[in-house]
Design a protein that fits this description.
six-stranded mixed beta sheet, 14% helix, alpha+beta
């Protein structure tokens, strides 16, 4: 007899990131993003660079672009910016995770892009409305393979760089994070119950800027990995 599904519509595919040098897949649950977590980027965005309570927003797991895939320029928007970020991949979840234990919950790290409809985000800010229209759109989270912490450890410094068509646009060191990774996990787990498979995009250094169709974005984070994406 044919098997009748208990679901009203087909089940969505499970979003995942490839694991570097492995056939394993890292299933993605949620994507959390930390806002303005580099001093120089806070300044270029016209914000106070002083250390304040971290704030968060989200992208959707199915916003991921993997395997150096293309980034389709989104409709409606006329100003889309690149933001390179160190990505933390959570292997264990929990609430109220202590800072000193936070890295025990990390499975690995990746290189990511928080692609942003800057014009639409700015409109939402002025109107006091949520940012999702500017942040959580299709293909807005290109990401590299996950490098397991069991192989690379828990890096706390290294060059973070983005080139557009061979020209360096963003250059920094992720030791410049205002809120360090253990502090981010501690703060985030006080607001949400973190789950295995969650990704945390930790913020971007200065140099964010607009992209155009045809641009090639090359991303590199020392000790973590690299990735490319073409704007189409």
């Amino acid at each position: 007899m044919p098997v009748t599904s208990q679901y009203a519509v087909p089940l969505p595919l499970v979003p995942y990131l490839p694991v570097r040098n492995s056939d394993l897949r890292f299933p993605v649950h949620r994507i959390y993003c930390v806002g303005r977590n580099y001093t120089d980027h806070a300044i270029e965005m016209g914000q106070d660079p002083n250390r304040e309570t971290p704030f968060f927003f989200q992208k959707n797991a199915d916003n991921l672009v993997t395997n150096n895939g293309d980034f389709p320029y989104p409709p409606v928007s006329k100003e889309v910016h690149h933001e390179i970020e160190l990505v933390v991949a959570m292997g264990n979840g929990g609430t109220d995770i202590a800072r000193e234990n936070a890295l025990d919950h990390v499975w690995g790290y990746a290189v990511g892009l928080d692609m942003t409809r800057r014009d639409m985000q700015s409109e939402m800010k002025k109107a006091g409305r949520p940012w999702e229209i500017g942040k959580a759109f299709e293909h807005s989270a290109p990401c590299s393979d996950v490098a397991p912490a069991s192989e690379i450890g828990h890096p706390n410094e290294g060059r973070i760089q983005l080139k557009v068509n061979g020209e360096v646009r963003q250059l920094g060191n992720f030791n410049q994070l205002i809120w360090k990774i253990p502090e981010i996990i501690m703060a985030l787990s006080g607001l949400f119950e973190l789950k295995p498979g969650d990704l945390i995009m930790t913020g971007t250094p200065a140099g964010v800027g607009a992209v155009s169709r045809g641009d090639l974005l090359e991303c590199f984070i020392e000790g973590v990995g690299e990735m490319t994406t073409q704007v189409v």
